[in-house]
Amino acid sequence: MLLGRYVKTVINIFHNSGHGKGRRKAAGFHFKFGLPKKKERNMPTTVSITNEQKVKVTLTPVTETGKPAKLDGSPSWAVVSGNSQVVVAEDGLSADLISADDPGETQILIKADADIGEGVEEISDVITLTVIGATAKNLGITVGTPEPKA
C-alpha cells in the first residue's frame, strides 16, 4: 500500500530544438498518494447587519469530505464579547442573532461534540456579527393643519 508515500515517475520528453542534433530533455513529476486533507479554516464567519435587524444562522455539520454528519447532543452558543443577543432554537442547530442597539462587533462561540457515544471530541466555530447603524431613508415630512393668514 502506498498511502502517505511519494512515488517518483520520470517521463522522458524528447525535444529537438533545431539547434543541434537530438538534444534531449527529461521532465519529472512527483505524486503523493493518500487521503486528501482539508485545510483548517482560520477565519471566523462574519455577518453584517444593521441595528434594526436580526439574522438566522443554521448549522449543517459535515465530515472532512463534506458528507452530512451527526453531533452528540445539542451545540452550545455563547456571546463571548459584544452586546448583540443570540436566541437558540430548541435543537441547537440554528439561532437568531439579534443586533444590539448600538453599532459594534459581537463574537459568538459555537461548540459541539462530534464524537457519538461516551467520548468527547469538541469542535467549535466563531461568528463575528458586525452591527452597523441604520441610515435615514427618507426625511419624514409632516404637514401641519392649514390656518388662515393674518
Helix fraction?
under 10%
Unreliable stretches covering 5 or more consecutive residues: 1-15, 25-31
Taking all Cα atoms into account, the compactness measure Rg is 29 Å
Structural class: mainly beta
Strand order of the largest sheet: 3-9-8-5
Terminal Cα span: 102 Å
Name the CATH homologous superfamily of the largest domain: Immunoglobulins
Query: Beta-strand percentage?
Result: 35-45%
- What is the count of helical runs? 0
What general form does the structure show?
A: elongated
The name of the CATH architecture of the largest domain is: Sandwich
Number of domains: 2
| Overall average residue pLDDT | 81
Order of helices and strands: EEEEEEEEE
**CATH class category name of the largest domain:** Mainly Beta
Characterize the structure shown:
With 150 residues, this protein is mostly beta strands. The chain has 2 domains: 1-34, no CATH class; 45-132, Sandwich (Immunoglobulin-like), CATH 2.60.40.10. The protein has no helices and 9 strands. It has strands at residues 6-14, 24-32, 45-50, 54-58, 76-81, 85-88, 94-98, 104-113, 122-132. The strands form 3 sheets. Strands 3-9-8-5 form a 4-stranded mixed β-sheet, with no helix packed on it. Strands 4-7-6 form a 3-stranded antiparallel β-sheet, with no helix packed on it. Strands 1-2 form a two-stranded antiparallel ribbon. The chain is elongated, with a radius of gyration of 29 Å.
